[in-house]
Specification:
By secondary structure, the chain is α/β, with parallel strands linked by helices. α1 (about 20-30) runs parallel beside α6 and α5 packs across α6. About 35% of the residues lie in helices and about 25% in strands. Residues about 1-5 have low confidence and may be disordered. The radius of gyration is 16 Å and the shape is globular. The structure holds glycinamide ribonucleotide. Glycinamide ribonucleotide binds near residues 21, 113, 114 and 179.
Length: about 190
C-alpha cells in the first residue's frame, strides 16, 4: 500500500506512449488553484513519445521504461512510486499491458481512458469499428484498471454522436475533446472517494 504523503495534493504518475494530449490536459487542470492533484511523474515506454516534451515544458520528472522485461521493471517502478509518494496512476494513451501483480499492488488506484463506450469496443481501432457497425454513438470511458483489458469498473463515460460523414479520424478528434473534459472529472471523483 502506498501511503498518502500528508500534503493536500494527491501525487499522480501518468503513463503515456504517444502524443500526450490527455497528459497535457491533466497537467493544465492540476495548475488550477482548487486542484487536488499534482502530476509528479511521467512514465513512457516509448522514448520518442511526443508527450515527453511536456515534461520539460512543465518541469516534471520522467522515466522511459522498456516494459518488455516487465516483472523486474515493474518491481523497480513500485519502489520509485513509494519514494515519490505516488498515490494514483493515470494511463493516458499508454499502449502496454501492466502485469497482474503490479495492478494488484495499486488495486483501485490505476485509471485508464479508453476511446469507446465500454464494454463495447475494447482494444484497438475503436472508432473505425463503431462506424463500420453503424453505431449511432461512440464516446469515451474512464475506468479502473483490472487484470482484464478495458474491463475494470467504469468511473465516467461520455457519449459522442457519430455522423454519416464521419471517418475514424474525424470521430477520434471529437471524442478526444470529450476525453479532455472527462478524465479530470473522473480523477477528481476518485480522489474525493479516497
Ligand atoms: C486517446 O484517445 C486515448 O483514449 C487512447 O489513446 C489516445 C491517446 O491520446 N487510448 C487508448 O486507445 C488505450 N487503449 P493522447 O496521447 O493525445 O492523450
Amino acid at each position: 500500500m502506498i501511503k498518502l504523503n500528508g500534503t493536500k495534493k494527491i501525487n499522480i504518475a501518468v503513463f503515456i506512449s504517444g502524443k500526450g494530449s490527455n497528459l497535457e490536459n491533466l497537467i493544465k487542470c492540476s495548475k488550477d488553484r482548487k486542484s487536488k492533484f499534482k502530476i509528479s511523474l511521467v512514465i513512457s515506454n516509448n522514448s520518442k513519445a511526443l508527450g515527453l516534451k511536456l515534461t520539460r515544458k512543465f518541469n516534471i520528472k520522467k522515466k522511459i521504461i522498456n516494459f518488455n522485461n516487465s516483472k523486474l521493471i515493474e518491481k523497480n517502478l513500485l519502489k520509485v512510486f513509494e519514494k515519490k509518494h505516488i498515490n494514483i496512476i493515470c494511463l493516458a494513451g499508454f499502449m502496454k499491458i501492466l502485469s497482474k501483480s503490479f495492478i494488484k499492488k495499486f488495486d483501485g488506484r490505476i485509471l485508464n481512458i479508453h476511446p469507446s463506450l465500454l464494454p463495447k469496443y475494447k482494444g484497438l481501432n475503436t472508432h473505425l469499428r463503431a462506424i463500420q457497425n453503424n453505431e449511432q454513438y461512440s464516446g469515451c470511458t474512464v475506468h479502473f484498471v483490472n487484470s482484464k483489458i478495458d474491463s475494470g469498473k467504469i468511473i465516467l463515460q461520455k457519449r459522442v454522436k457519430i455522423f454519416k460523414k464521419d471517418t475514424a479520424k474525424s470521430l477520434a478528434a471529437r471524442v478526444l475533446i470529450q476525453e479532455h473534459a472527462l478524465y479530470p472529472r473522473a480523477l477528481n471523483k476518485v480522489i474525493n472517494d479516497l
